[in-house]
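batch job 7 of whatever, protein = DUF6456 domain-containing protein
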Amino acid sequence: MIQTMRVIQVPEWVPEEARRYLEHTENGRSIRQLARRAGCHPSTVLRQVRRMETLRDDPLIDSALDGLTEQYFKEDIRHSMPRPQRTPQDTAGQAKVTKALIWLNHGNAILAYAEGMDKAVIVRDDQDEKKISIDKGLAGEIALRGWVQCVSHKRLSRYQLSDDGRAALSSMVAAQENRARVRRDVGFAEAARSFQGKEVANSGGARRVRYGSGETPLAMLARLADRNGEPFLTVDLVRAGERLREDYELAQIAEHIYPVNTVFDVPCAAKPAHGKAHADTAGQRAHEALAALGPGLCDIALRCCCHLEGLETAEKQLGWSARSGKVVLRIALQQLKSHYDALADQKELIG
């Protein structure tokens, strides 16, 4: 009877080759079994196991592997209740890793560790007073993931940030910035937003915006400030974008309403044409405004003002570099405002 060996669940941050090494050395799984489960040639797994065995000369990596063995591969641990595992999504643990990598990202910063100690130290060579201490387990995790490389194997081992560590740090910082921007611009996704508009003052008196203006990309971008502390989008620019969206929505609504209404019309009854005429006029105004912007500017205005696409989505769809969309959108709104200023004698239909 063939007995199947149970797979030990280790934390998600553990590299795959380290998992296979521990499965082979601590769990007794053969090289062929590991290769069959991974769908690769046994020689690939063998090279990974030999490489991990060589890396155990590093005291931090050896300490990290010993810690994983104690927590997940001991006989009494296998039959106990599952232990809580820290995943990369753990906010507190991820913050500690990010802080350590930020300190190591300085040009002359090193991670120092003496074998047998419970702490490791990140210090800068030219300023000894600037240093932080981290747990041995955290330092071992960073070393096991290949984010630091050992530059000195003496009594006091020294490590520097590797290229993989810099790439990982860039991803972590970008993810933190994205989460902060979402919390600042949108807030909680579960929060219900009122569809009733708010009062907006203009030259003709107060008017009510008939959509959730807090959800529009223009409203979120208007809350940002430029390098001088001024609003990134002025009220006039936001109003120009809202006017374009109003005309666009009027034209779109007419395309859906009037063909349906013809089904319910009495054959001999007269059909009112003033509503359709207003919608056609609004569509013509939107078309003229987009045509006045020209290629490029009309694309970003149509996507962000009319389709309510986010800036990141619009940048990807248009093939632009990151964070360039808001600058181009502001230029488009400035041109749009100039176009509407030239039509000052015409009145807005909505408002």
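notes: DSSP finds 14 helices and seven strands in the chain.
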